[in-house]
Structures are given as C-alpha cells and as structure tokens.
C-alpha cells in the first residue's frame, strides 16, 4: 500500500499537466499572448517537479533529486511571476527575476554540497518562492486603480500560497542542522494538505482571471466603434449615465454636444467611401485632441458624433462647441494627396441643473442641431 502522499503527488502531477495544456491552448487561441505561454511553461515545470518527487527513490541520488526539485519549484514560480508581469505591463526586468532564482539555486547548492545544513537546504528555495509569489500578488492588485473581482481573488490566492510556503519553510529552518522527526511531520502535513489546496486554488483563479480579461475585452469591443475607435451608441449611453452622475456630484457644468458633419453625402460622392471614412477618422481624432481626457466622445452612427463634457465654469463649457466648429472649419483633412475641407454643425444642451436623462438630452441637442442645419450649417445652436 503506497503512502497517501504518493496519491497526492500523482493528483498534483496530472493537475499540472492539464493546467499546462489549458494555458498552452489559451496561448494558441487568445492571440498568442506571451503571458499565457509563460503560465503554460510554469505548470510544465511544476509537472517535472511532481514527477521528480514521485520517481526520486527509483533513479536519483538524494542530493540530485533535491537540486532538481528545488530548481523546478523556483523555475515554476519564476515563470508564473514573469507571466503576471507581462500581463500587467509591470516593468520588472526578467533578468532581475532570473538573478533571484540563480541566487536561490546557488545557496541551495552551497547548503547541500559545500557546507551542508539541513534547515537552510530545505528552506532557502521556499523563501525565494515566497518572494516571487508576493511580487505576483502585489503586481496583480496594483496594476489598475480598481481591480476586478477575479484579480482580487487571484492576488489573495497568491498571498495565501506564499503564506503556506513561508510556514513550511520556517518549520524546515527551525530544525537547524539536525533532522527533527516532529518538525518534519509538521512540515509534511503543511506540504501535503494546505499547499496542494492553495496551489490548485491559485491555478483556478488564474484561469478565472484570464476568462474575466476576455469578458472585459468583449464588453469593450461591443461598446467601441470599429472605424473611429471612439465609443459607439451603446457605449456612449452606458458611460454617459455614470459620467453625468459623477460630474453633477462635483457641481460641474455638464454639456452634451451633438455634432454632425455638413453635406457628408457629397464628400462620399466626391471622394468615395474610403475618403468619407478617412474624414470620419480624422474628425474623431481632431475632436479627441481638443477635448479633455475625461470628456466622452461617441459616434452615434453615420457622420454624427456626440460629446459629453463637464467644466467648472459655464462659459468654458459653452465655448467648447464653438471652438470645435472653428477648428474643423479651419483644418482641411488630408486624404492621400488631397485636402478635404469640411464643416460641421452643432447642437448643445446644458444639463447640470436639470433632471434630464441622457436620452432626453440627446433629443434636445438633436433638435438644436436641426436648427443649426436649417439656418445654414457650420453653426452652433444652444437648446
Ligand atoms: N464613408 C462613410 N459614409 C457613411 C458611413 N455611415 C453613413 N455614411 C453616409 O453618410 C451620409 C449621410 O448623409 P445625409 O444623412 O444625407 O447627411 P449629409 O449629406 O451630411 O447632409 P446634412 O447632414 O444635411 O448636412 C450617407 O450618404 C451615408 O451613406 C460610414 O461609416 N462611412
């Protein structure tokens, strides 16, 4: 009858193979993101680690088995940390991570072969793993202002995993240089109960985090206009509702500006659909350049854009549309060798002091726009 630890190792071995395959397939199907490949390689290293633990007594000398186990453990955590740094665009040089791993290996080698010390031999690599896991936990939680639930969960799981390893390492170290059967028993209990649970929990949370990344990407795509890259109608409604509440709380003057390019059909007829598209892209870029980062720009369809702005001073808010009109009027759009002169009409509604919904505000601004069109175009009309 095999020891129960053997069965746990077999389970970990197969779980790691599966996780490595899952992340490899994620890498293949999710645009070959490097971090997914790192996660796959990380679980491959874990697979070697568990396989090494399973076959140790069959082929390897104890010291060789130990060095392979330590290096695979650190390699696995290092690759995972590197993957998380890539995903979060954290500027930690891989060489710094590699250096930490090499120091861990050198110290383990030293305390195994040169100046043998049981406690240090068993604990140094685990402490290095703890450092890697803590870096990962911090990197995940700190890379954006408001972390997603999946990121919070993944960060906590890395922290818990680091905690389990820290306890295991400290128990091993507290033996000193002499084998202590009681402490080793405790060390094995941590190693084969808390650690596998934390390991599997952490892996599942990483998968959940990547799935949540994908869901966010889809949501973003569903709210983005593919030609101009600004918000589409649906995206504008969703964001404008939140933004209006935010701005009104800050007692800002909120204006909704409806902008429609004049005689756009004629531009399409003269320069072709591609020329018309270029005009739409250039106009959206021009508007983005001349509004603030927090202002919202959406394309409502065709040649219609809508802008939501908040300004502390009412005159500032009112002047934005006039400034945009004048810039569009004065800036011909380059299309290949050609320069296309265009104008646009604007309808503006102020909604700071009124209890107006986005839909009503758009209707009012649209009516003002209609007046701007019917009174000769290239004009701004306030509702
Ligand atoms: N190139 C291009 N044209 C588009 C797109 N979406 C809509 N259009 C065209 O935009 C034109 C809009 O024309 P109209 O609604 O008649 O308006 P207009 O010619 O700008 O006239 P006024 O608004 O009255 O000044 C139509 O010819 C549509 O085919 C697009 O994504 N790309």
TrEMBL record:
It holds the Pfam family GGDEF. Its EC number is 2.7.7.65. The keyword Phosphoprotein does not apply. InterPro entries: Diguanylate_Cyclase, GGDEF_dom, Nucleotide_cyclase, Rev_trsase/Diguanyl_cyclase. Keywords: Membrane, Transmembrane, Transmembrane helix. Residues 252-383 form the GGDEF domain. The chain crosses the membrane at residues 6-25, 37-58, 64-83, 95-112, 124-141, 153-174, 186-211. It catalyses: 2 GTP = 3',3'-c-di-GMP + 2 diphosphate. It comes from the Bacteria. This is diguanylate cyclase. It comes from Shewanella ulleungensis.
